[in-house]
């Protein structure tokens, strides 16, 4: 079955810096890769997603890139703000479900 | 107007008890899921139903029994609760194939 690895597990940056979170997946049949943000005590919420026929997608300060050959995808956050502090999860689709990475705790210091 | 709603939000109970968590979605999605999030924040799928039919059962102890009376509702009943069952349980729904995955607000279960 699908296995999703996510790095780093924790990431500390200064406000205004960029943050990059990387994920790899194992199943070449996966074709949908969403990213979720989970604030403390809240539900995971979709922030951006990408499909396998696209190499890059951007939405304001966040962007996702996908390399199907290497089976890895990344989340890029520019001009980070304290409210970006949260746990971020990548995921890959497999047979009608999403398999999640282990999460990255991002801390943005003012 | 909440898209995926779960009740209760908090549940504290003693070992050995039986408890239920309810989930409802108003998104018109065909598929519903239960995920368990442990203290390390790992999100692990437990069950999935598509149009009331069980399609995923990820080696969960048979003390856990999901029930889907219709495609908008998915409940989780847990018998003989154990300390290790303490976690946050998230319900989610999506279109068939995984599009539009939306989580409920979670149920924090504490077994004492």
Sheet of most strands of chain B: 7 strands, mixed
Please report the distance between the alpha carbons of the first and last residues of chain B: 34 Å
> Which consecutive residue ranges of chain A, at least 5 long each, have pLDDT under 50?
none
Instruction: Note the beta-strand portion of chain A.
Output: over 45%
Helix content estimate of chain B:
under 10%
User: How many distinct helices of chain A?
Assistant: 0
Mean of pLDDT of chain A: 95
Alpha-carbon distance between the termini of chain A? 41 Å
* Number of H/I helices of chain B: 0
Most extensive protein-chain contact, per-chain counts: A-B, 22 and 24 residues
Encode the helix/strand succession of chain A as letters.
EEEEEEEEEEE
Could you tell me the strand content of chain B as a percent range? over 45%
Secondary structural class of chain B: mainly beta
What is the helix fraction of residues of chain A, given as a range?
Answer: under 10%
Uncertain spans of chain B, ≥5 residues at pLDDT below 50?
Answer: none
Largest sheet of chain A: 6 strands, mixed
| Net shape of chain B | globular
- Name the shape of chain A in a single word: globular
Concise overview:
With 110 residues, chain A is mainly β. Chain A has strands at residues 4-7, 10-14, 19-25, 32-38, 45-51, 56-59, 62-67, 72-77, 86-94, 97-100, 104-109.
Tell me what the structure shows.
The complex is a heterodimer of chains A (110) and B (112). Helices cover 0% and strands 59% of the residues of chain A. Chain A has strands at 4-7, 10-14, 19-25, 32-38, 45-51, 56-59, 62-67, 72-77, 86-94, 97-100, 104-109. In chain A, the strands form two sheets. In chain A, strands 2, 4, 5, 9, 10 and 11 form a six-stranded mixed sheet that branches. Chain B is an all-beta fold. In chain B, the strands form two sheets. In chain B, strands 2, 4, 5, 6, 9, 10 and 11 form a seven-stranded mixed sheet that branches. In chain B, strands 1-3-8-7 form a four-stranded antiparallel sheet, with no helix packed on it. In chain B, strand 7 (64-70) and strand 8 (73-78) form a beta hairpin. Chain B has no helices and eleven strands. The mean pLDDT of chain B is 92. Chain B is 0% helix and 56% strand. Chain B is globular. At the A-B interface, strand 4, strand 9 and strand 10 of A face strand 5 and strand 10 of B.
């Amino acid at each position: 079955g699908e296995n999703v690895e996510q790095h780093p597990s924790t990431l500390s940056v200064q406000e205004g810096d960029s943050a990059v979170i990387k994920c790899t997946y194992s199943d070449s049949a996966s074709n949908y890769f969403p990213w979720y943000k989970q604030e403390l005590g809240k539900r995971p919420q979709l922030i951006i997603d990408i499909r396998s026929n696209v190499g890059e997608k951007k939405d304001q300060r966040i962007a996702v890139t996908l390399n199907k050959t290497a089976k890895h995808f990344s989340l890029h956050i520019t001009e980070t703000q304290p409210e970006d502090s949260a746990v971020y999860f990548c995921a890959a689709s497999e047979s009608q479900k999403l398999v999640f990475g282990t999460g990255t705790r991002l801390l943005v210091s003012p | 107007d909440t898209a995926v709603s779960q009740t209760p939000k908090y549940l504290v109970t003693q070992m050995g008890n039986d408890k239920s968590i309810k989930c409802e979605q108003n998104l018109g999605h065909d598929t519903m899921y239960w995920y368990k999030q442990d203290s390390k924040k790992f999100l692990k799928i437990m069950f999935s139903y598509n149009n009331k039919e069980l399609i995923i059962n990820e080696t969960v102890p048979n003390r856990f029994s999901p029930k889907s009376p219709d495609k908008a509702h998915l409940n989780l009943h847990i018998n003989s609760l154990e300390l290790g069952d303490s976690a946050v349980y998230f319900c989610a729904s999506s279109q068939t194939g995984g599009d539009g995955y939306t989580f409920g607000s979670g149920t924090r279960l504490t077994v004492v």
